[in-house]
Amino acid sequence: MFFANTPEPPYYACIFTSQRSDKDAASYNSTAEFMDELAAQQDGYLGVESVRDQNGLGITVSYWKSLDAIKLWKENAAHKKAQEKGVKDWYSSYTTRICKVERDYTSNE
């Protein structure tokens, strides 16, 4: 299992919960991979954790140094195009939550 290697808090989490539609799976998968690569190049990016079940329910948590870093990612031109495609074709519903991480701890089992 892979966990993002985040620094000592505080930092921020952007939680994107989505329900995939049946449309355009090939384009979705390639764009999702590209978004992961692009986000990793953004100033303030700390990491990501993502899962999707067999029914299309997915949760992606990206971690960021600041609210400004999250805002810049949201406004990234390529990310904006992917967001538009997501609303139009890829998701039947989604929710985004922005949280400040004030404490974290890890089990090494």
Automatic annotation (TrEMBL):
Keywords: Monooxygenase, Oxidoreductase. InterPro entries: ABM_dom, Dimeric_a/b-barrel, Jasmonate_Hydroxylase-like. GO terms for molecular function: monooxygenase activity. Residues 21-85 form the ABM domain. It comes from the Bacteria. It holds the Pfam family ABM. This is Antibiotic biosynthesis monooxygenase.
